[in-house]
Design goal:
Helices cover about 0% and strands about 45% of the residues. Strand 3 and strand 4 form a beta hairpin. It is globular and about 30 Å long. The protein is mainly β.
């Protein structure tokens, strides 16, 4: 399955939304429901779980 912008993934046991997918297999993600300033995290696709989160 392909990960696309807007998908929900699990990273370090927390739900994140994909903001951008790079061709180099990296993703920009942001925590879902973060209350204050949201951080954007750059991670490799192998570090996230995608699917039934």
């Amino acid at each position: 399955m392909t990960i696309e912008r807007g998908d929900l993934v699990t990273y370090q046991d927390e739900l994140h939304q994909v903001l951008h997918v790079y061709s180099s297999d990296f993703l920009e993600i942001r925590k879902v429901h973060e209350r204050y300033v949201s951080r954007v995290i750059l991670v490799h696709k192998s570090e996230v779980t995608f699917g039934n989160t």
